[in-house]
Amino acid sequence: MAVSTHRLVMIGANHKSASLSLRDALFVDDLAAPGFLEGLKRSGLAEALILSTCDRVEVWTVDADPTHAARLAAEALAARAGLEASVLASHLYTLSGAEAVSHGFTVTASLDSLVIGEPHVSGQVKAAHRLSREAAAMGGELDAYVQAAFAVAKRVRTETAIGEGPVSIAAAAVQIARDLHGDLGRCRALLVGTGEMGELVAESLLAAGLGDLSVTAPRGSRAEALAKALNCHVLPFEEMRDGLANADVVLTCMGSRNVAVSAEAVAAALKKRRRRPIFLVDAGIPGDVETAVNRVEGAFLYDLGDLEKVALKGRATREAAARAARAIVADEAAAFSRGRAARVAVPAIVALRTRFEAAREAVLAEAGTDAAEATRLLVNRLLHAPSEAMKAIAAKGAADGPEWRDMEKTLNTLFRLED
Questions:
Q1: What whole-number distance in Å separates Cα of residue 53 and Cα of residue 128?
Q2: Is residue 316 part of a domain?
Q3: By CB neighbour count within 10 A (0-12 exposed, 13-18 middle, 19+ buried), where does 81 fall?
Q4: Rounded CA gap, 280 and 176, in Å?
Q5: Global confidence as pTM
Q6: What is the CATH number for 101?
Q7: Same domain, 243 and 212
Q8: Choice among 54, 187, 232, 253 that is catalytic
């Protein structure tokens, strides 16, 4: 089947074009995806993929008529959100051909996300691809494109630092904890207080594989509620000093204007730990940890300002890598489009080779073992029809007319006559 990139069409809404509430209304979870894809097939889109994440909801499809495909996909998305298609239209974008190729590569390589280089995007596209395949909505043409997008994402990860460096305060805390302690699965953490930022950092540590977490706070009921939400342990507040000695990572987020963790308590904990270091994150505003902790050997104290500096450095690293990654995407998108377009010529090339081979076999049968006669006959036979066509074109007008000039240009391109 001849394939050209103009058949690739993408219709959707993302964090740039639609609000979070609208994206939530459009969201198609894994359970709903088969039915949604079946609806697209019934409407006339035989090949389709639905990519639904917190950043975007997009339909990837192939169709000879981009306008037709966009209308069908927009109607399906509007029905999903419970809106009129005309109401949703201003929030949707439609990309086709080379623009669609570049966009899909950019998305899969995590260059169009809220967090550039976010590692889960490629996995989300892979999940969407799997769901489409299971729903019998992944045809050969769309599959070839998605596989190319995976290859581009892999090249970007391999050749750039797009995924390196933390870009948020929580990610910075996770990186420092890993740098200090190595495998987080062998680490214990203590969360002092129930503030939002402390909870956020704790969630990030748990997601990164933290082995054990305990929560302590002056109000036991709040500590118990947060521990339940985080699926971890509760430590009575009066036992906090003992908890410090068991903790490789200490998070504080009380902001009570009183010191919750003193330098003396940290020094005592380190003595019990036989000088095994403690990483302390003071997320309280004002701070919860005595600043003198910075002078305690084996204690590594970071406040929100320190973590933000680490995150800013990570963002700068990723932005530099993103420029290199976008150049890779541009090169790969152009190469993919050229490759797809070149396939249009395949049937004509096959027919030409078949015609020439038939002429060769006929000449060999006619000339027998006389090689010179065979080659003479073959050349004459192959050039007869083109020569007659050239004479007919020349006879229609002047030798310097546009039709003849086009013919000469084509011959020079095909046979390099000027060489």
A1: 10
A2: no
A3: buried
A4: 10
A5: 0.61
A6: 3.30.460.30
A7: yes
A8: 54
In this structure, the answer to whether residues 153 and 173 fall within a common structural domain is: no
Residue ranges making up the domain that contains 402: 359-415
Count of domains forming the chain: 3
Distance CA 245, CA 238 (A): 14
Tens-digit pLDDT string for the chain (419 aa): 344 456 899 999 998 898 888 998 999 999 999 999 999 999 999 999 999 988 899 999 999 899 999 999 999 999 999 999 888 999 999 999 899 999 999 999 988 877 677 778 889 999 999 999 999 999 999 999 999 999 999 999 888 877 776 677 888 899 899 999 999 999 999 999 988 889 989 999 999 999 999 999 998 999 999 999 999 999 999 999 999 999 999 999 987 778 899 999 999 999 999 878 999 999 888 889 999 999 999 999 999 888 888 888 877 877 888 888 899 999 998 888 877 766 666 666 666 777 777 777 777 777 777 777 777 777 777 777 777 777 777 667 655 667 777 777 877 777 776 76
Last residue of a domain, one of 311, 334, 349: 311
Question: What count of other Cβ atoms lies within 10 Å of the Cβ of residue 114?
Answer: 12
Residues 184 and 284 reside in one and the same domain: yes
Q: Which of 159, 192, 210 is the last residue before a domain boundary?
A: 159
Identify whether 232 is a catalytic site residue.
Answer: no
**Residue 196: alpha-carbon gap to chain centroid:** 29
